[in-house]
Amino acid sequence: MSWPWIVLLALAAAVVLGAEWSRVSMLVAADARRQRERSKQKASLKLIRSEEEEFAESVQRDLAELPTIEETDRRS
Q1: Is residue 52 within 8 Å of residue 60, measured between CB atoms?
Q2: How is the chain split among helix, strand and coil, in percent rounded to 5?
Q3: What is the per-residue pLDDT for 17?
Q4: pTM over 0.90
Q5: Distance, CA of 1 to CA of 28 (rounded, Å)
Q6: Rama region for 32: left / alpha / beta (φ>0; ψ in -120 to 50; rest)
Q7: How far is it, in rounded angstroms, from Cα 5 to Cα 11?
Q8: Phi, psi (5° rounding) for residue 50?
Q9: What sign for the dihedral angle of Cα 58, 59, 64, 65?
Q10: 34: Cβ–Cβ under 8 A, 6 or more apart, which residues?
């Protein structure tokens, strides 16, 4: 391999590294470990539903089940 090809290869590697720097820095950064641990903690959390949310959903279900009239029925 001649030296111009080596220089071009090095420049290509620098361009790729520059374009992907945000991803690379997340993987090797000092607080990347903390972020990974935090995401693991968040994944293990359980959502607790409140009574208000359950009530709102039951009202929505009840409203969806109500009979409706068609436009043609209203005119006659």
Answers
A1: no
A2: 75, 0, 25
A3: 86
A4: no
A5: 32
A6: alpha
A7: 10
A8: -85, 165
A9: positive
A10: none
At 58 the three-state DSSP class reads helix
Residue type, 63: L
Dist. CA 7–CA 16, nearest whole Å:
14
What three-state secondary structure class fits 76? coil
Amino acid in position 47: L
For 20-37, what is each residue's pLDDT tens digit?
A: 887 777 776 667 778 888
Tokens 């690379």 map to which residue?
24
pLDDT in tens, 31-56: 777 888 888 888 888 877 788 888 88
Radius of gyration of the chain (CA): 29
The three-state secondary structure class of 20 is coil
